[in-house]
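Budget justification aside, the reviewers requested a transparent look at the raw inputs and outputs of the sequence design task funded under Objective 1. We therefore reproduce one unedited record. The lines immediately below are the structure tokens for a 159-residue chain.
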């Protein structure tokens, strides 16, 4: 089992977690102190797992959303699974508003019969951007074009 601890901190203080249910399961949005949604679940799904590599890059992405919601103490627990070609990946998120931030503890658990040889676990949210001042942690900071030289790093050109 792999455990990730995330502090979703791109929105400033006073973040609020909102959990919504639709036909595909549960989605989340994180709002600022005014109630404006700043981060939201992509339409592809809250969770992403790649199970292969081609040309030194992740491929065969599978996506999913939580299908179960429960409240435990101060935590909102969202859980479900993604069916992969060789088995099932169980995923569980525990969200808590803490010190003006939203804390998330994400757990991945492989339930296939054989060892999962390749797995890339993805974390993705949608955020509104304006011009070239979008913030993409680990990829691009406020219009810095240096990532384009490698040919592997996404570069945001403001469109």
């Amino acid at each position: 089992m792999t455990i990730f601890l995330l502090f979703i901190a791109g929105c400033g203080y006073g973040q609020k977690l909102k959990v919504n249910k639709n036909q595909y399961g549960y989605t989340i949005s994180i709002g600022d102190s005014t109630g404006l949604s700043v981060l939201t679940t992509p339409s592809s799904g809250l969770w992403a797992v790649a199970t292969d590599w081609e040309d030194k890059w992740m491929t065969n992405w599978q996506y999913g959303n939580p299908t179960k919601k429960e409240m435990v103490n101060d935590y909102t627990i969202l859980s479900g699974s993604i069916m992969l070609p060789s088995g099932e990946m169980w995923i569980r998120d525990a969200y808590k508003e803490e010190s003006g931030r939203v804390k998330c503890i994400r757990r991945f658990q492989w339930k296939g019969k054989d060892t999962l040889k390749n797995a890339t676990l993805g974390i993705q949210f949608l955020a509104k951007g304006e011009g070239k001042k979008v913030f993409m942690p680990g990829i691009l900071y406020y219009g810095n074009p240096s990532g384009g030289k490698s040919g592997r790093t996404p570069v945001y050109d403001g469109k």
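The chain is about 0% helix and 55% strand. The first strand starts at residue 2 and ends at 8. Computational costs for records of this kind are itemized in the attached budget.
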